[in-house]
Every structure is written in structure tokens, then in C-alpha cells.
Amino acid sequence: MVMGTIIAPDDHIGKIMALCLNRRAVQKNMVYIDDHRVMMKYLFPLNEIVVDFYDHLKSLSSGYASFDYEDAGYHPAELVKMDILLNGNPVEELSAIVHKEKAYVMGKALCERLKDSIPRQLFEIAVQAAIGSKVIARETIKAYRKNVLAKCYGGDITRKMKLLKRQAEGKKKMRRIGNVEVPKDTFINVLKHKEK
């Protein structure tokens, strides 16, 4: 945990307090320095401010807020390990330790960003966020589809069914043996925080 000190104009207090509460902060003190400036002290979990808290604070306050923090020791918290699975295979680079209350929201957001970032394959890709063996969020990247019936004109319906069945078997086999390659820039795009 860290003790964060925010000094900001008083007309931005509401937005800054909402940002702090969203980051699991506990308000400890709030003092008016003068007629227009407020000093707020919050107890933050360190992982909530490391990535992009300062950027969001500056954008909310039009650049007028300042932020400083100091170590406040260790405190117990309910944390869980969230794994990201691609077709059932864990991707260790994307595993994260998250707060139990935020696990579903973060898992869902991470799966959605991965769905947008990973290129489509010839087979369907299941993107899942899991805690232990329990899947908490899932997105599906659809496969490219080839029209195997394009060269079949009229004729017997069983011929068309045979072609579609053979295509489905091929896709199932590719999914079973196919490994999903995750591009390097995908990792950077996925790990960026997105404030709603």
C-alpha cells in the first residue's frame, strides 16, 4: 500500500474522488489549502497507481493536479491469479494477480482486447480468462470461412453435405493441433489500462 497525496483545484474534486474510488483507494484526509486548492490523502494499493493513474489524474484535472506517494507498508488483500487461455492453453505472459472483486471486469476487458488484437486464423479461437479451473470470461475469434460449395452446381444434396462435413472435420483437426501465434505488439496493446 502507498499513501498518495493529491493537490488539485477544488472544481475537479468530484472527478478525482471517483477516479480514486475506482482504484480501490481509501480516503484518509481532505484539507483546503486555500480558497481554490484542496489536498487529499488516499491509501492506494500500489498496483492500482503504477501503470496509468497519473495520466488519468492529469487528464481529469486539465493538468492542474499533482500527485506524490510514499510507502505505507503491507496490508492483506483478497488476490487471485487470473490466467488467460487461448484454445485451452495458458498464455503465461498475460497471467495476472488481480483483486477478487475486479477479476470478472478485468478478465472480460482483457478477453475483449485480445479478441480485437489477435489476427483471425483458419480455425476458431476461444479466448478465456480463468481463475483456477473456473472460466470467468470468454470471447471467440471467428475462423476464416471458405465457401466449399462454390464449385457445386445443383445436383444431389448429399454431395454438398459431404463437402461441408469434410470441411468441419478439417477445422476440428486444425483446432486440435494448431497453435495460436500471438504477435508481440498485441501484448503491449492488451496490457494498457482502459478507463470506462
From TrEMBL:
Domain GTP-binding protein LepA C-terminal positions: 86-192
Record's keyword annotation contains Hydrolase: yes
UniProt keyword annotations, A-Z: GTP-binding, Hydrolase, Nucleotide-binding
CDD domains on file: lepA_C (cd03709)
Residue ranges of every copy of the Elongation factor EFG domain listed in the record: 4-84
GTP-binding recorded as keyword: yes
GO biological process: positive regulation of translation
InterPro entries, A to Z: EF-4 (IPR006297), EFG_III/V (IPR035647), EFG_V-like (IPR000640), LepA_C_sf (IPR038363), LepA_CTD (IPR013842), LepA_IV (IPR035654)
GO molecular function annotations of the record: GTP binding; hydrolase activity; mitochondrial ribosome binding
Annotated signal sequence range: none
GO cellular component: mitochondrion
Pfam families the record matches: EFG_C, LepA_C
Family label: Belongs to the TRAFAC class translation factor GTPase superfamily. Classic translation factor GTPase family. LepA subfamily.
Record's protein name: Elongation factor EFG domain-containing protein
